[in-house]
Amino acid sequence: MRLFLKMFATLVCVFAPSLSCNQELPDNQQSHAHELAVRLVLAKRDFQVGQSIPVTIGVSNCGDNPLLVGNFILRGSGGTPVSRIEFELKDAEGHVIPSNYEVINDSLGARKESSAAAGFLSSYVLLYPEYSLNTTLRISPHQYVMLKNPGTYILSATYSSNGTSYPPAYRQAGLTDDDVKSMPFRAWNGRLSTNDVQFRVRASQPTTKKEKGHSQPSPR
User: Do 137 and 55 touch, CB atoms closer than 8 A?
Assistant: First the structure.
């Protein structure tokens, strides 16, 4: 099993070059800067009331050695994922806006893979130095009712990962303790704060309707 895991672990895909390693990190993240960084990116900063906001999350290896990270980032709480992200939205005055977002605790439960290799590949990805895992999630007025109001908002998040330190997270993927011990690369675990991103929600523009009774008659 040890040799088999070494063979397939090196085949795990790496992703786009890192977008996060050169960022200025918060003080509470400096101790992790040599290994991992997590950054939020918005493609634009202005939205209309009612629009959802796509947020790209970049998880980057800023260290010198390959790292295993969760290949699926679960949003919010619940379940036993390898990695998760928890958003925090504030208004312009810094007040935290409550979220209606919920995750069913057993949404990932009882997932068993056919082999240790399948379980590994379904849960982890190998990030080489200066490479990133990028994914996009959306926040919307359905999740944050205050977004139905025009204004300026500030979004941040906390990224956390159990790595291979939490047995329920890897056992539900069909991995055993021996499988985890035989992994040739270290899995990152811990908590990181992201950067803040600011955006603005504007009132919807009224649509202009053509006035009736002003059309020109067709020539005969």
Answer: yes
